[in-house]
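Predict structure. Chain length: 553.
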Amino acid sequence: MYCILIKLFIFMSYNATKILKIVLSIILLLAITSCMSNADDVDGKSYQLAVSVSDSGFTSASGTQTTRATDNGYATTFTKGDQMGLYVVNSSNTVETANLCLKYDGTNWNYPTGTMIYYNSTSKYFAYYPYQSTITGIPTTSAATTATSFFSTLISNWQPSTDQSSQTKYTASDLMIGTGTVGTLASNATRPITFNMTHQMALIDLNIPYYYLSTDNNYIYTLGLTYVGFNPFHLSKGNYRYIIKPGTSTPIWGSYCPTTSSTTNNVFNKAFSVASGTYQTMNVDGGAVGTSHTLAIGDYYLNDGSIIPNATANKYLLDKTIGVIFSTSTSATDKGHGWAHGYAMALTNATTRCQWSTNSNDEALTNYNDYTVFILNKDGYTETQTIKSHGLNAFNKDNYPSFWYALNYGSDNEPGTTQYAAPSTSSGWYLPSIGQWYDICVNLGGLPPAMLRSTYIASSCWNDNGVTDYASIFVSNINQYLLKLSSKGYAVTAFAHTISTDGYLEGYWSSSEYTDEKSFGMFPSTDSVWLTYAGYSNLTKHSTWDVRAVIAF
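Prediction complete.
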């Protein structure tokens, strides 16, 4: 009996062990199957999610949507460098991955270096754009099933900026969200996940009449355009975009000058309340209709790139004037920079009586010896930038004062000139070449194209031995463009040709050099006007003359 009991115990123990092994095998098999189902674990590998993003665009609040080929309608086209934030929520409604920054390289949305996100069938994926390093509304960890509910706090806290004047500032206000839809396993062993983003803000589509140059219908501007409390993004010809908070009354208020002969501005003012994801159009005085303008010598150049005839009396336009146009063409080099329309001269001196440079010798960039050649040199911008980058000494106010004052005209470095700040689409201010001074003398100063005397090598002047007072002609003609503004209270520096009590003769530096010790300049003297190098009278780059900056556009 004792032996039988022992055998029975051994039999039962053996079967229990076998049963246990079977049970464990089943559990392990289920676990493997579950892992393969949830995370694509095949042959011991998990497969990464490959992200793609699309935008359904804004729809018309009136139910009728129009599109423009030039701006891709009302959908956002993502560009290289764009960033969005990604969240992954697991089956327990816990955020596993929070605010992961994905960056677009122009083709793909890429994870941060060293980071990968893998597919799991029980996870949910939510994204928003544009990315914020510190998010303005932390998503909840509740059982949200849509991006709208997941990002509800972010949406309610989002405030579009009042300054949307650039592409970057505009897109920074345009909140979009999306829920990820995962596709089937791809041949490159990735799972595609697509986020169809929807706009959570609203859009105002503003259309205003504009001008364009007769020689370039892509050079466009709206005269005297001002805004009150907002600054939209200029998308295309006469078309502006502005993101607003949906369901909130937002005024679109501003004014513009309808014609160059108008003495006052037309005001537009309307409040909009628009649903999220939709746009509403505001057409001002017929909308984005263009009028041609033919560029002319003596036109005024404004701080927003607008151009007006010098006969304009509208104070809103004159308030924006920063220069007088002295040429309606530019050099081949400047055309290569995108400044193909003309040159303008500043209304005031950048400084008076400063040295060209404090170096005893420098670049000797041009080294002209024939005035028929040097008057063709229109590359003051290139010469100025060369000195800035390759001067013998460090570039600063002490070593290269003439160039420093020209380049900093209109900037915060010269506080008294900030009203003359250059438009971003221009070259910015710089020291003119000797050929550009020739254009100023002929086109604004009214001097004959043919210079009359070449008394010194590489020097020439308008002088006929006192028969004609060319200096007075130059001063009278060029000052008519400046004094018209000063008579209305605007600050200008008029030209003169008198010798001061301390013996100072008026003269202006150019960026063009004659030798390493001598540089060209423009000098109205007694009854003559000289275009010459400053060494013709034993004067060098250490001499002190005035600086008048120019600009290319």
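Summary: Confidence is low (pLDDT under 50) at residues 1-39, 41-45, 65-72.
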